[in-house]
Amino acid sequence: MAEKVEQTVTVDGQYQPNVVTFQKGDQATLTFKRVSESGCLDTVQSHDFGFQSKLPLNEEISFTIPTDQTGKFEFACGMNMVKGKVIVQ
Ligand SMILES: [Cu+2]
């Protein structure tokens, strides 16, 4: 039975945490909440997962993360400078 798991990343000039882990088979949701104007993190993107979105201040933006395959996947700011990682294990 797939477990519903939501991980929230706080965006305040960096990603906290910058590594999130899901188990293979989880119904995984990755949520970003930007709480600071600092840095260049008003956009989040992931080439690995194929998402890109603005992060309005103090709003939660969620993405469904596929967990059918294990691996390490990246997300980053709009300029690909600040990076975080999703591990599916
Ligand atoms: Cu940036």
Please tell me about this protein's structure.
The structure is a single chain. The chain is mainly beta and 89 residues long. The chain has no helices and nine strands. The chain has a five-stranded mixed beta sheet with strand order 3-9-8-5-6, with no helix packed on it. It is globular. Residues 40, 77-79, 81-82 line the site of copper (II) ion. This is EfeO-type cupredoxin-like domain-containing protein. It comes from Fructobacillus tropaeoli.
Features:
mainly beta, Immunoglobulin-like, 5-stranded mixed β-sheet, 9 strands, globular, binds copper (II) ion, EfeO-type cupredoxin-like domain-containing protein, Cupredoxin, EfeO_Cupredoxin
Query: What are the secondary-structure elements, in order, as H or E?
Result: EEEEEEEEE
Quickly give the CATH architecture: Sandwich
The parts where pLDDT drops under 50 for at least 5 residues are none
Mass-distribution shape: globular
Number of strands: 9
Count of helical segments? 0
What Rg is obtained from the alpha carbons, in whole angstroms? 12 Å
CATH class annotation: Mainly Beta
Pfam family, one: Cupredoxin_1
Domain EfeO-type cupredoxin-like: 5-88
Organism: Fructobacillus tropaeoli
Protein name: EfeO-type cupredoxin-like domain-containing protein
